[in-house]
């Protein structure tokens, strides 16, 4: 049988395609936890999966956006937990990431050196003339917008909890058995009281509201062109239950990092839709 070059080419193409697929596949990592694959692992992972980063399909993503600079905004919240965890630079980093994903040309702050810091100081002091002078330097010359993201609110707005403890009912069952007048009734009452008394169940939930404002500033005139505001609820909860020495508990919810990133995504979605 005579094999043509086409005959050899087919398996070669298949092999190349397989290699290409392997080359572009993202790396996957397995959990090293001793509980991996167990019931608690599955429950915890199901909750964690809901907080994973989700890319946004921005409406005008295919349209190239103007050059922008993200400057650190203000955090007006007095919540100690939030202030310990976040700085304005953290939020600006999220802003740079999402504006880049929306196809804006983003000048990263880390590449601009002290010039950007001088602009921030001049702008925050209300000196537009000095601010414009810094925007006319180097890479910043072709900047169209300056964008900032401010946190205006982080507060716990609601909390609820419910619980059941079988201790009291268990004691009553034991007493009823003791007064039954028979040894068997007393023994049954004691066993039943112990079993019922071991039952407990509870759950607690707290809801926070976090609000973010964005501002778009004309890089040439330093005048504010637009602003917007958005809020998101952050729910954190925990459950626990048990009976006869077997206890279960679970807690979770989106963290502050996740909530801030989602707020930035909502803000950038609006900027992309309206001001590109």
Secondary structure layout:
Elements: H1 5-24, H2 39-49, E1 67-75, H3 80-85, H4 88-101, E2 105-107, H5 114-124, H6 128-135, E3 145-165, H7 167-178, H8 183-197, E4 200-218, E5 224-243, E6 246-253, H9 256-274
Parallel strand pairs: 1-2, 1-3
Antiparallel strand pairs: 3-4, 4-5, 5-6
The CATH homologous superfamily is named ABC-type transport auxiliary lipoprotein component
CATH class: Alpha Beta
Radius of gyration: 30 Å
Order of helices and strands: HHEHHEHHEHHEEEH
Into which percentage range does the β-strand content fall? 25-35%
**CATH fold name:** Rossmann fold
- Annotation, overall tally of beta strands: 6
What are the low-pLDDT stretches, counting only 5+ consecutive residues below 50? Answer: 172-197
- Determine the number of helices (DSSP H or I, runs of at least 4 residues): 9
Characterize the main sheet.
6 strands, mixed
CATH architecture: 3-Layer(aba) Sandwich
What do these coordinates show?
The chain is an alpha/beta fold. It has one domain (58-274): Rossmann fold. The protein is 42% helix and 29% strand. It contains nine helices and six strands. The chain has helices spanning 5-24, 39-49, 80-85, 88-101, 114-124, 128-135, 167-178, 183-197, 256-274; strands spanning 67-75, 105-107, 145-165, 200-218, 224-243, 246-253. A six-stranded mixed beta sheet has the order 2-1-3-4-5-6. Helix 5 runs antiparallel to helix 6 and helix 7 (167-178) runs antiparallel to helix 8 (183-197). The longest helix is centred in the first third of the chain and has 20 residues, at 5-24. The protein is globular, with a radius of gyration of 30 Å.
């Amino acid at each position: 049988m005579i094999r043509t070059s086409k005959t050899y080419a087919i398996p070669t193409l298949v092999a190349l395609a397989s290699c290409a697929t392997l080359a572009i596949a993202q790396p996957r990592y397995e959990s090293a936890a001793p509980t991996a694959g167990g019931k608690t692992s599955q429950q915890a992972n199901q909750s964690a999966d809901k907080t994973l980063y989700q890319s946004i399909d921005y409406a005008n993503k295919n349209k190239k956006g103007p050059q922008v600079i993200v400057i650190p905004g203000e955090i007006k919240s007095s919540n100690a937990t939030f202030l310990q965890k976040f700085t304005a630079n953290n939020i600006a980093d999220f802003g740079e990431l999402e504006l880049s994903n929306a196809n804006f040309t983003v000048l990263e702050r880390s590449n601009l050196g002290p010039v950007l810091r001088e602009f921030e100081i001049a702008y925050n002091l209300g000196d537009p003339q000095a601010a414009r002078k810094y925007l006319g330097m180097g890479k910043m010359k072709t900047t169209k917008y300056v964008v900032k993201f401010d946190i205006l609110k982080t507060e716990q707005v609601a909390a609820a909890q419910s619980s059941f403890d079988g201790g009291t009912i268990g004691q009553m069952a034991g007493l009823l058995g003791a007064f039954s007048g028979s040894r068997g009734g007393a023994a049954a009452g004691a066993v039943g009281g112990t079993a019922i008394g071991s039952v407990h169940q509870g759950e607690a939930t707290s809801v926070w509201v976090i609000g973010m404002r964005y501002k778009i500033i004309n890089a040439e005139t330093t005048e504010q062109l637009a602003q917007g505001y958005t809020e998101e609820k952050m729910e954190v909860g925990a459950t626990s239950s048990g009976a006869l020495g077997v206890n279960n508990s679970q807690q979770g919810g989106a963290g502050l990092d996740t909530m801030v990133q989602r707020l930035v995504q909502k803000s950038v979605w609006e900027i992309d839709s309206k001001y590109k």
